[in-house]
Backbone:
C-alpha cells in the first residue's frame, strides 16, 4: 500500500489516459535516442555563432531540470542589450521523427505534482537539449535592446552555441534582488554574476513599466506545490511570484514578441498565442464596483490593470483572491494560425498584438514548431509546414493544453485531499472560483486547495469571498467538500 493509503502515481497515470494522453514512449523513441547518444558534440559551424564566452545564466524552479532558456545582458549606448538563448530542440528532434511524432500528439509536458509526464524523453529534455550548467548547447538566440523607457529596438534572431555558467533558482535569486536575503552561493561568489543579474533586473523593470503603460495585466498568482517525501504527501506549500519570477516572465514576453514580429516581417505563417477579450467582462465590472471602482462597459485591459494595481496597493493581503477571480473570468488562452496579411490576433492579458510561444520547446510543441519556422527563415529555406498543418497543430495544442489543465487540476485536488485529511472541521478563508451546473467551486488559500461548496452555495458568484469549513475529503475522487 502506498504511504498515504492511496496510489497517487497510478491515479495520475489514469488521468492522463482518461484525457487522451499517451504517457509511455514507443520503442522507436528509444531507438532514436540511442542514435543521439552517439552524435558528435555541437560546434559553431556555418551560421552558428560561438557565444560560449558570455556569462549566461538560467533561473527556474528549484526542481526544474528541463532548462529551456538562459540569459545575458550588456549595457550599450541605446540601453541594455538583452540576449535570451532558447534550447535548440529541433536540432535533435527532426520533424517527422518518432520523438517528434510523440511530441506532436502530446503537445505539452504535464505536471501532476506527484509525477511529471514529459513531452520529450527525459534523456533529451533534462540533458541533451537542456541548457545545463557547464554544457555546450545549440540555441536559438533572441536579441533586443531595451531602452530606459522600456521600448525595444534592434531586434534579431540567430543561432548560436552557448554555455550556461550558472543554474539559479527563483527562490534563491528573487529574495536577493528584493534585498530580503543574502545572495545564493553561486551569485555571492561572483561579482561579475552579481552585476549581470542586477543589470538583467534593471532591464526587467523597464520592460515591466512599459508593459503596464500598454495595459498588460499583472496578477499575483498563488500556486500550490506539493511537499513529497519518499512518495508521501507531507503537505502543500504556497508558491508566489517574486522579483526573479517577474524577471523571467518579462524577458519571455519580450522574447516571444520579438519572435512573432520577426516571423511576421519575414512574411510567413506562424502560430500565435492569444487570450480573447473576456466574455464575462460584466462580472469583472461588478467585482470592481464592490470596491467603489467603475470600469468601462466594454473590455479594456488598461483600465482593468489600473484597477488591479490600485487594489494591490490598498490590500495586498487579499490581492491574490482578486487576481484568481479575474483570471477565472478571463478564460484560457488558445493557439491560432496567423497568416501573412491577417489582422494580428491580440493577447488581451498582455495588451500585445504580436505574441507567440517560442521559449519552452522542451515542454511545449508549439514552441518547437515556432523554432522550426524561424530556423527555415534564417536558412532561407521553404517553410516546413503548410497553413493547414499549422492550423491543425494550433487546434491540437489548444485541446491538449486544456486537457493538461484538467489532469493537473484533478491531481491537485487528490493531493490536497490527502494533505488535508487531518484538518476536517477547520475553517478557512475562501474565494468562489466557479459556478457551474455541477456546483459552486471555492478555493482556500492556506494552503491553496480547491473544492466544492456542498452547503450555503445559494446566491454566490465568482469572486465572492467566504468563510468555509472543511467537512470531508475523498482522495480517490479528488473531492474536498466545504460548507459555508
Residues:
Amino acid at each position: 500500500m502506498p504511504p498515504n493509503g492511496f496510489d497517487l502515481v497510478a491515479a495520475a497515470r489514469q488521468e492522463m489516459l482518461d484525457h487522451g494522453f499517451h504517457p509511455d514512449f514507443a520503442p522507436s523513441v528509444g531507438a532514436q535516442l540511442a542514435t543521439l547518444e552517439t552524435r558528435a558534440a555541437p560546434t559553431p559551424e556555418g551560421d552558428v555563432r560561438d557565444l560560449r564566452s558570455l556569462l549566461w545564466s538560467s533561473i527556474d524552479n528549484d526542481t526544474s531540470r528541463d532548462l529551456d532558456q538562459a540569459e545575458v545582458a550588456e549595457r550599450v549606448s541605446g540601453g541594455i542589450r538583452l540576449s535570451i538563448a532558447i534550447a535548440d530542440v529541433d536540432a535533435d528532434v527532426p520533424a517527422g521523427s518518432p520523438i517528434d511524432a510523440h511530441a506532436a500528439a502530446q503537445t505539452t509536458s504535464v505536471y501532476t505534482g506527484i509525477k511529471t509526464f514529459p513531452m520529450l524523453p527525459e534523456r533529451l529534455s533534462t540533458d541533451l537539449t537542456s541548457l545545463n550548467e557547464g554544457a555546450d548547447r545549440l540555441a536559438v538566440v533572441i536579441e533586443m535592446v531595451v531602452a530606459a523607457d522600456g521600448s525595444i529596438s534592434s531586434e534579431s534572431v540567430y543561432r548560436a552555441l552557448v554555455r550556461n555558467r550558472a543554474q539559479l533558482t527563483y527562490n534563491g535569486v528573487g529574495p536577493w534582488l528584493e534585498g530580503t536575503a543574502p545572495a545564493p552561493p553561486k551569485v555571492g561568489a561572483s561579482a561579475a554574476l552579481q552585476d549581470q543579474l542586477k543589470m538583467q533586473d534593471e532591464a526587467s523593470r523597464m520592460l515591466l513599466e512599459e508593459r503596464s503603460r500598454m495595459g498588460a495585466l499583472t496578477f499575483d498568482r498563488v500556486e500550490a506545490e506539493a511537499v513529497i517525501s519518499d512518495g508521501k504527501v507531507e503537505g502543500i506549500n504556497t508558491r508566489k511570484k517574486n522579483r526573479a519570477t517577474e524577471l523571467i516572465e518579462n524577458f519571455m514576453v519580450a522574447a516571444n514578441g520579438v519572435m512573432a514580429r520577426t516571423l511576421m516581417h519575414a512574411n510567413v505563417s506562424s502560430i500565435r498565442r492569444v487570450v480573447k477579450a473576456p466574455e464575462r467582462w460584466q462580472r469583472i465590472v461588478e467585482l470592481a464596483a464592490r470596491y467603489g471602482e467603475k470600469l468601462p462597459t466594454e473590455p479594456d485591459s488598461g483600465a482593468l490593470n489600473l484597477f488591479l494595481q490600485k487594489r494591490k496597493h490598498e490590500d495586498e493581503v487579499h490581492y491574490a483572491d482578486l487576481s484568481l477571480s479575474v483570471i477565472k473570468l478571463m478564460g484560457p488562452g488558445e493557439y491560432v494560425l496567423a497568416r501573412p496579411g491577417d489582422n494580428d490576433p491580440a493577447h488581451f492579458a498582455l495588451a500585445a498584438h504580436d505574441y507567440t510561444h517560442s521559449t519552452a520547446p522542451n515542454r511545449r510543441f508549439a514552441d518547437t514548431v515556432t523554432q522550426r519556422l524561424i530556423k527555415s527563415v534564417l536558412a532561407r529555406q521553404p517553410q516546413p509546414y503548410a497553413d493547414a498543418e499549422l492550423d491543425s497543430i494550433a487546434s491540437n495544442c489548444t485541446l491538449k493544453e486544456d486537457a493538461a489543465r484538467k489532469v493537473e487540476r484533478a491531481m491537485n485536488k487528490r493531493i490536497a485531499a490527502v494533505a488535508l485529511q487531518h484538518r476536517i472541521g477547520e475553517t478557512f478563508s475562501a474565494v468562489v472560483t466557479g459556478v457551474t451546473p455541477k456546483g459552486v467551486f471555492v478555493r482556500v488559500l492556506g494552503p491553496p486547495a480547491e473544492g466544492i461548496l456542498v452547503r450555503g452555495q445559494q446566491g454566490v458568484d465568482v469572486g465572492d469571498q467566504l468563510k468555509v469549513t472543511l467537512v470531508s475529503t475523498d482522495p480517490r475522487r479528488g473531492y474536498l467538500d466545504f460548507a459555508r
